Amino acid sequence: MVARKKGLVFRITGLPASKPDDELKESLKTSISSNLAENELLNLQFDPAIVPSCYDNEEKIALVEFHGGVPAFLSDLIANPQGEWQVEMGSTDISFDQHFFGFTQLYEPRADLPVTADIIAITGLDRHAYRSWRGKGNLGRMWLRDFLCKDMPCCRTMTYGYNSKLATHGVDTIMDYGRGLMEELKKIRNTEELRKRPLFFIAHGFGGIILAHCLIKAVQTDEDDHPTVASLYRATYGMLMFGIPHKGLVVDDIQKIVAGENNYPRSTLLAQIRSKSDLLAFQLADFINLIRDRKVDSKSKRWKRTGEFITAVDADSALLQLPDSMEDKIPLNTDHILMVKFNSRSDQGYRSARDRLKLFEQDATNVVAARFLRPQSILNTAIMIPFQRDNAFVGREDILVKISKKFQQEAPHTHSRVALVGLGGVGKSQIAIEYAYRLRDVAPQTWVFWVYAGNAARFKQAYTDIAAKIELPGRDDPKADILRLVYNWLCDERNGRWLIILDNTDDDRVFHSTSTDLSNAARETEAVREAAQLAPLASFLPQSSNGWILVTSRDRVAAVNLVETRNLFQVDPMAEDEALMLLKTRISIDKAFENDAQTLIRILGYIPLAITHAGAYIAVRAQTCTVSTYLDLFRESEENQTHLLSRSESQELRDMRRDSSVSSAVITTWHALFEKIRTMYPEAADLLSLMAMFDRERIPESILLGSMSRVQFEDAVAPLSSFSLIKTQLGQQTEERLFEMHGLVQLATKKWLEVQMQVDNWQKASLRIMAAALQSGHHETLAASRVLLPHARKVLNYALEERESIRNRAIIADKIVWYHFFTGEYEAAGKIGRVALVSWTGVLGVEHPDTPTSFSELGLVLYRQGKYEEAKRVHRRALEGYKKVLGVEHPDTLTNISQLGSSYLFMWQKALEGGGKNGITIVEDVEKTAVARLQVVEKWTFRWAEEDIIKAEACGDMKEKREAELRLKNARID
User: What single DSSP character describes residue 162?
Assistant: First the structure.
């Protein structure tokens, strides 16, 4: 007998079940033959097989394989594989198809024995419900049908088909495919007996993803919703999983396979099954928790798919990584497609699959029956978030992606923790809220618990609420240790996946203090005293692999003590575009006010809480207040700024998504933090107060050290940095550290000091420090002075009436004048010089030793500006002061005489150029000045006389030159 080659198999539905199989078979052969052409009758062979229908006892189906080609009357099904073709069989209309959608039973179980189980085979992505399981040999054996009918004769074995062709246009997602499978299951397991029948699943590739989704949904379904779906989880005993991409597929090559379209019709589906997608990561975690008492056989491939393109399912993704006692891990020496194709019953892969199925069959009946005798005790998961979702949430995608990736990378085999750390009001809790709701969307079977961690009492109350929600036995016992009960429940992996959000974890001592740590109660805050117990609260945060913890904290130290440093994510103020979007979600902004809106968010430092606060203020005054109005008010004064950002007690400005114990006003929020720092770290509070007096950027370490040692200084800096109140960077030209504080933090600090009536003290300190730190005018000190200049300008604005502060302000002004003088910024030097004069003359008096110096400096500046007449007047004032205070022969007096002479000289040159009587007068004045200067200089140095000679020669005045030379000669003789 000549060996036949396999042909195409068609499914025929609509056969009446009332007729015997033999009679149906003959009728069907007659009907098919009547539709064949003459040559087809000679060349085609077929032999229909009658099998029961999974759906309807009144119908049967047939499977027919045509050898020698496809009949012409079925050629439309080749052109349209998803179509159907109807044929008359007597008085009955029957339908041919080759898509095998839905369930197809492959053989009839033994009639003399009860059915032991339903076997359901689910094919993979872009595969066929029937052909995917056929061997590559010439006979094309379909092992589910041809082999299992002999080896598993008491099972109802079925394939499940769905439209998985990637090249077709469709919008189906994993959820859609899962719903489709559950709907079909309702139809084939629609009696109590069928619902309690054991289920064995055989899944290939993407079929396993659909299966996992269905089982997870089944756990969440009540009997009242649908008994078939609700019973699905209990009825499932074992699974054979061939190359399931639990962690996702590498889908780039799939897109190439399906014609390389950029606008790919199944882009949504591919995004869901892409390697390391959120959806699959969370589904895998929950699936593993569900099947821990089920029998699992995972088969992974050793060879890749051959050909131009490769669809990779790596071994790590194909295995669930369960203990060996729960998961048999079988590697197959074949590629992803061939791993489910067996040519004979002797194939190693088939023998392995058969043996597992036989083991399933041995124990399944008793185990599944026992499950249905026990009441269903699995609770519906819930999300316990005390805040509504912000449907207008914007931005922060980078941080949300980081959180998601971190959790999915370590799920489901490792406990994972992540902390969001940043300045108060920067939006950490809002990010956590958004993440919680996104998690609900992709993993609704995951518990989400919100725990306010600001103090021990609230932590314990949250655990009490969790105990009530999960209906924890023993929770109502007055002596019950609620913390321990909830901890034990969370550690039990049978209770499923969970996420705990620890919000406002700002005090490290709340979690790590015990009763023995609190002997000196007078030094502890109330929140910390509440933590007194035998075990610290941190010990009640499980580290089991079925749970994650997301921490929000202003204190980096507190976060580090709960989360590894590498899992800390810094939350900074928003990007400009995100901040503008946030403001626009709160108020309507006309195009005419767009620039003002951008200015406002920049002034607010892109702090989300400040932006929403401003938006609320404008919104409730929409009839009278615009963005521009608010901006004008804000710019008017610091008093306005603190007022606008401190109005938290008004209900109109409450933030619905902030804990009621935390202020909705950014200024008030930070004031509470400042008080905490002052209590716990007084040196840090002093350092923050001093920093607030300077310009907020590039504050050099040298002006902050004071009398502190290096160790003391580092201890003071640490908490400020930990709470994100300051940032540190290295200077570009020196290795000295520079500090920076946010503008609103500086404003809040000043307001806090104002409440304590400490502003004047810190302003005095800043003036004293700057007067000592700022260098006088020398080229070698310009770089250091350049760093200090913004801070010097800042402290000059402190109008203190105390004598020492006025003197320090004058010293600072003088040094700034010298800096501008040496850098050629004479206009700026002149303005600051006049400020110095006001200080010296107005309060210290003209007879103060420093007053003439200030006049002299201003005269130099005016001279360089070409204002010689004014420079002459100022130098004369300086000379008068020097004579009275220091005497004629003091070096400073002599210097001033020289400067005055320089002014006269240039005035004389200008006069000579213009001619006239004024020139003579000026010359006479110059001579008088030069002679007077010479009389005092001669006893100190001869350089002044030499200078007169040079000046006279430069002016072309030979007479003056000769007289000067004579004076120099006489001076040397003397």
Answer: -
Tokens describing residue 698? 């590039």
Edge to edge, the sheet with strand 84-89 lists 49-52, 59-66, 8-16, 92-97, 84-89
Mean per-residue pLDDT, 880-884: 55
Residues 66 and 111 in one domain: no
Using 50, 70 and 90 to split pLDDT, how confident is the model at 933? very low
Residue 816 or residue 44, greater confidence: 44
Encoded tokens for 217: 């949904």
Q: Are residues 306 and 412 in the same domain?
A: no
Strand, helix or coil at 33?
helix
Say if residue 412 is preceded by a cis peptide, omega within 30 of 0.
yes
Which residue has 């203990």 as its token pair?
323
Strands 568-571 and 447-452: unpaired
Distances (CA, A) of 655 to 572, 651, 712: 20, 9, 39
| Residues 599, 537 within the same domain | no
Q: How many domains does the chain have?
A: 5
Whether residue 643 sits in one domain with residue 730: no
Q: What burial class does residue 467 get, using C-beta atoms within 10 Å of its C-beta: 0-12 exposed, 13-18 middle, 19+ buried?
A: buried
pLDDT per residue over 479-492, tens digit each? 889 999 999 999 98
Least Cα distance to 388 among 443, 452, 450 occurs for: 450
| Residue 934 within a domain | no
Please give the model's pTM, rounded to 2 decimal places.
0.63
Side chain identity, residue 258: V
Tell me how far apart the alpha carbons of residues 827 and 865 are, in angstroms, rounded to a whole number: 8
Q: Going edge to edge, which strands form the sheet with 295-301?
A: 102-105, 155-161, 117-122, 199-204, 236-242, 295-301, 327-332
- Beta pairing, strands 236-242 & 295-301: parallel
Strand intervals (E) in 393-469: 416-422, 447-452
Q: Which of 756, 776, 800 is the last residue of a domain?
A: 756
Burial classification of residue 101, based on how many CB atoms lie within 10 Å of its CB (0-12 exposed, 13-18 middle, 19 or more buried): middle
Phi-psi region of 315 (alpha: psi -120 to 50; beta: other; left: phi over 0): alpha
> pLDDT tens for residues 215-268?
877 877 777 778 888 898 889 998 888 876 644 443 444 444 344 444 444 455
My answer on whether 352 and 388 are in the same domain is no
> Within a domain: residue 908?
no
Q: Choose between 826 and 892: higher pLDDT.
A: 826
> Residue 737's beta-bridge partner residues?
730
Residue 760 contacts residue 801 (beta carbons within 8 Å):
no
Q: What is the DSSP string of 458-477?
A: HHHHHHHHHHHHTT-TTTT-
Instruction: Find the DSSP H helices in 201-258.
Output: 206-219, 227-235, 252-257
Task: Indicate the residue among 36, 66, 98 that finishes a domain.
Answer: 98
Backbone angles phi, psi at 58, to 5 degrees: -90, 0
Distance CA 68, CA 70 (A): 7
Residue 234 maps to a domain: yes
The tokens describing 338, both together, are 């061939």
Q: What is the mean pLDDT of the chain?
A: 77
- pLDDT confidence band for 733 (50 / 70 / 90): low
Strands 737-741 and 699-700: antiparallel
Looking at per-residue pLDDT, the higher value among 731 and 515 belongs to 731
Q: Is 70 exceeded by the pLDDT of residue 375?
A: no
Question: Which H/E stretch holds residue 521?
Answer: none
- Residue numbers of the domain that contains 265: 100-373
Residues 6+ apart with CB under 8 A from 121: 133, 144, 157, 158, 159, 160, 201, 202, 203, 204, 207
Whether residues 456 and 486 share a domain: the answer is yes
Kindly report the backbone phi and psi dihedral angles of residue 553, in degrees, each rounded to the nearest multiple of 5, phi listed first. -155, 145
Cα separation of 159 and 106, whole Å?
Answer: 8
Same-domain pairing of 557 and 591: no
How would DSSP label each residue in 848-879? STHHHHHHHHHHHHHHHTT-HHHHHHHHHHHH
